[in-house]
Design a protein that fits this description.
By secondary structure, the protein is of the alpha/beta class. 32% of the residues lie in helices and 24% in strands. It has two domains: 111 residues, Formyl transferase, N-terminal domain (Rossmann fold), CATH 3.40.50; 99 residues, 3-Layer(aba) Sandwich (Rossmann fold), CATH 3.40.50. It has six helices and nine strands; from the N terminus they run βαβαβαβαβαββαββ. The radius of gyration is 17 Å and the shape is globular. The protein binds 5-O-phosphono-beta-D-ribofuranosylamine. The site of 5-O-phosphono-beta-D-ribofuranosylamine has 14 residues, from helix 1, strand 5 and helix 6.
Length: 215
């Protein structure tokens, strides 16, 4: 089915840290039948392990200047990042543990083409340490969510979610580890659907089409 595709979709990953989701995405995309390829990994943190991990898998990985603010990129800096992504002809931007909020310059440049993975069942436990928040709260189920990015915090339309049951003897760490395994599976799955043109977005609702030709 993918053989007919003229050009694989081009993915750019933004990541700030350890990079396990970036690695999962790169490995999934290195399979011949996957409808997209990772062409660049960009980090706001020169020391981030993700940079070396991506390089080891043969993917270009660079640090770009993050500018003066801790939680976001100022417009001039966003413009530079967008320029680099455009130079690499990136179709979709994937946030994978990227610790800064994207603002207008970035969002406008890749409207509807930015995705994120969040380690909880949104809209529960937005923001940092979602696994710890869920464990502290005492929920019986948490999970992972892949969603489009808009100007709200972890608030864009939801593409895929999967439930993880919380066990009585879980710690925040053991729960996070099981959620992470799910993340590594559903993020590539969502990207494949996206790249195959099988996501139909209507307001907050994302419908998964059975076949590309239904579009
Ligand atoms: C993941 O849990 C992801 O859901 C969250 O940040 C973490 C990043 O981990 N947004 P890694 O860098 O992908 O290993």
């Amino acid at each position: 089915m993918y053989a007919k595709r003229v050009r694989k979709k081009r993915l750019g990953i933004l990541a700030s840290g350890r990079g396990s989701n970036a690695v999962a995405l790169i490995k999934a995309a290195q399979k011949q039948e996957f409808p997209a390829e990772v062409v660049i990994v960009i980090s706001d943190n020169a020391e981030a392990p993700v940079l070396q991990k991506a390089e080891e898998l043969g993917v270009k990985a660079i640090h770009l200047e993050q500018g003066p603010k801790r939680t976001f990129l100022i417009p001039e800096v966003e413009a530079k990042w967008v320029e680099v992504l455009r130079e690499h002809e990136v179709d979709y931007v994937l946030l994978a543990g990227f610790m800064r909020l994207l603002k207008k310059t970035f969002l406008d440049s890749f409207q509807g083409r930015i995705l994120n993975i969040h380690p909880a069942l949104l809209p529960s436990f937005k923001g940092l340490d979602a696994q710890g928040q869920a464990w502290e709260y005492g929920v019986k189920y948490s999970g992972a969510t892949v969603h489009f990015v808009d100007d709200s915090l972890d608030g864009g339309p939801i593409i895929l979610q999967e439930v993880v049951q919380v066990a009585d003897d879980d710690t925040a760490e053991s729960l996070a580890a099981r959620i992470l395994q799910v993340e590594h599976r559903i993020y590539p799955e969502a990207i494949a659907l996206l790249a195959e043109g099988r996501l139909q977005v209507r307001g907050r609702r994302v419908k998964i089409l059975k076949e590309t030709h239904e579009r």
